[in-house]
Every structure is written in C-alpha cells, then in structure tokens.
Amino acid sequence: MNEIVVAPIQLEEAPYEPVAGDPLIRRNLSMLGHVNVRLEVLLGTAEMSVEKLFSLSKGDTVTLDTHLDAPVTLQLDGKSIARGQLMAVGDSFGLKITEIL
C-alpha cells in the first residue's frame, strides 16, 4: 500500500501597501479576466417613516446623510472596496478613486 505523506507549508505574505497608480487587485487574472462584475456607488442613505415613503411623489426630494463634496463608496457585491469623488465624464457620472479599502 502506498502511503502519501502531506507536510504543511508555511507561506509568508508580505503586507501590501498600495501605491498611487497600482491596480486594485494584483493577481494573475488569465482565467478570470473576461468575467464581468457589477459595481455600485453608494452616495448616502436616508431614513424616513413608511408613511413618508408612501407619500413620495414625482418631484419630491429625498435628502441624503452625505455632504455634497464627501467621498462616495464603491461597492462590489455589497462590500466596500474603494472611495472616491464623483465627477462628470462626458454626459455621464464617473468616479475618481481616492482610496482603496
């Protein structure tokens, strides 16, 4: 009978300190690079009663708990991965990343 012996290995990973211009994730993405993911930008939150929620109509304003110039949060699958500033990119919004979490 062949006996297989498996010995544990200790891998040491140096702490990663991101430098400006470094990619968010530094990995070999040859097998996953083609996979699309959906990112969301969290601008802020608001709290209101159900009565107020149901009384909202077209043209009403919902005030968020975030200041106009405050950083917004970039999320992947509900998890915060970065923060940045909203900016205009042509006729669309864009996000200039200022911090990687």
TrEMBL record:
One GO biological process term: bacterial-type flagellum-dependent cell motility
Cellular component, GO annotation: bacterial-type flagellum basal body; plasma membrane
Membrane topology of the entry: Peripheral membrane protein
Keywords assigned by UniProt, alphabetized: Cell membrane, Cell projection, Chemotaxis, Cilium, Flagellar rotation, Flagellum, Membrane
Main location: membrane
GO molecular function: cytoskeletal motor activity
Domain Flagellar motor switch protein FliN-like C-terminal: 32-101
Signal peptide: none
Locations listed in the record: Cell membrane
Family label: Belongs to the FliN/MopA/SpaO family.
Name of protein: Flagellar motor switch protein FliN
The organism of origin for this protein: Dyella choica
Lineage, top ranks: Bacteria, Pseudomonadati, Pseudomonadota, Gammaproteobacteria, Lysobacterales
